[in-house]
């Protein structure tokens, strides 16, 4: 019998549709659900899921069920994500990641052949949102503060929520390396050599995964 070859890809599995691009876990909920659909017409997929703290190694304080299961063609099943009860900050959001590894089955006619099996891994943000936070994600995004520190743009977030950037511009230059800024913290983002001027404009990603309202301000 021919041995199957394994190849790791970080792209989205062609046969598995994930129901959203990010997860918001409100602390007053017992669990959150993430729907998965196998769009294949004939072959099942094996699905393995877990959470981590952001380093890709340390497991997050959440239980994902089922952690490993088979999803038959044209079927849907939801992952159930439940908080383990571990202590987390109550005055700000916390960021974790959920990982979904999907492995396609091999068709019977290919079982005796050398088959290249693609193992896909989808990785998405999961925000733990405590009760009683002040403001909203939009208000937090709007109130970000910007200053120039040499060849870098300093962004300060005084709010309780993460701000995930869709885009940032200093003058007419796009700040390509702008990613996100955690609550109650600052980040330094490298600026392109063409960046100048005193006006910053930006958009943040909403809870629904789309670009939010455009804001602008002068550098501090």
From TrEMBL:
This is Molecular chaperone. It comes from Scandinavium lactucae. Belongs to the periplasmic pilus chaperone family. Residues 15-133 form the Pili assembly chaperone N-terminal domain. It comes from the Bacteria. It is found in: Periplasm. InterPro entries: Ig-like_fold, PapD-like_sf, Periplasmic_pilus_chap, Pili_assmbl_chap_C_dom_sf, Pili_assmbl_chaperone_bac, Pili_assmbl_chaperone_C, Pili_assmbl_chaperone_CS, Pili_assmbl_chaperone_N. It holds the Pfam family PapD_N. PANTHER family: CHAPERONE PROTEIN FIMC-RELATED (PTHR30251:SF11), PILUS ASSEMBLY CHAPERONE (PTHR30251). Its main location: periplasm. Residues 155-210 form the Pili assembly chaperone C-terminal domain. Keywords: Chaperone, Fimbrium biogenesis, Periplasm, Signal.
């Amino acid at each position: 019998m021919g041995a199957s070859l394994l190849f790791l890809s970080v792209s989205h599995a062609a046969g598995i549709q994930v129901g959203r691009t990010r997860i918001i876990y409100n602390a007053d909920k017992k669990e959150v659900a993430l729907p998965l659909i196998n769009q294949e017409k004939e072959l099942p997929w094996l699905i393995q899921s877990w959470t981590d703290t952001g380093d890709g190694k340390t497991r997050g304080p959440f239980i994902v069920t089922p952690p490993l299961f088979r999803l038959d063609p044209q079927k849907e099943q939801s992952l159930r994500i439940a908080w383990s009860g571990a202590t987390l900050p109550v005055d700000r959001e916390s960021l974790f990641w959920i990982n979904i590894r999907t492995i396609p089955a091999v068709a019977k006619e290919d079982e005796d052949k050398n088959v290249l099996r693609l193992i896909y891994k989808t990785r998405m943000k999961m925000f733990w949102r405590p009760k009683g936070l002040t403001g909203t994600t939009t208000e937090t995004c709007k109130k970000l503060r910007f200053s120039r520190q040499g060849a870098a743009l300093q962004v300060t977030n005084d709010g309780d929520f993460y701000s995930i950037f869709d885009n940032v511009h200093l003058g007419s230059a796009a700040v390509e390396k702008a990613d996100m800024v955690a609550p109650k913290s600052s980040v330094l983002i490298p600026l392109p050599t063409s960046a100048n001027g005193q006006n910053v404009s930006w958009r943040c990603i909403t809870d629904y995964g789309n670009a939010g309202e455009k804001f602008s301000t002068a550098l501090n």
